[in-house]
Amino acid sequence: MILRILGVVLGVAMAAQAAADSLDINLHGDALRATYSRPVGATRGLDMDVGLLHVEENRYDANVIHAGLQVTGMNWSKQGNFNISLGGRAVFVDVEDFEGGHIALGGSVRFSPMPRVGFGGSLYYAPNITSFLDAEEYTEWGLFADYQLLTQAYVYVGYRNVEVDPENGGSAELDDHVHIGMRMNF
In degrees, to the nearest 5, what angle opens at C-alpha 63 toward C-alphas 57 and 67? Predict the structure, then answer.
């Protein structure tokens, strides 16, 4: 089932253009995330991404599927380079007990104080007003440190926290772990 969902998400993303900008895959003992990103049309600095986070915990199995659109760019300083993106994501969450849909706003930043080394983070948030189905709120944030192993490939270690608040109250923490990953640029 998961492979079928991931295949559909990646197939839709690749149908618009044959060449990908990047593929990011990360995992830990209970979760796997794959995200495919590419530039949109001839507009410089506009990127789209689609992704799937699959989590298997003792308490539940969950899938978080997203499609996003971000404005991206670089900002230079005397201390190093900043890669910044701002935008939004349509997020669908499927947990055993409920389903939630969200329009989350946020972005990410990567700071490179020296060649080949980077540090960064991301944050996406959807309040009640942009959440529907069985959910009231969605929050995802993460931190990472990466190393450019090859010209077009990075390896990294990161931390991710994904939470969704169901309508019936409480909070479901879908992911709260350290993970390892790689990002390949094409």
Answer: 145
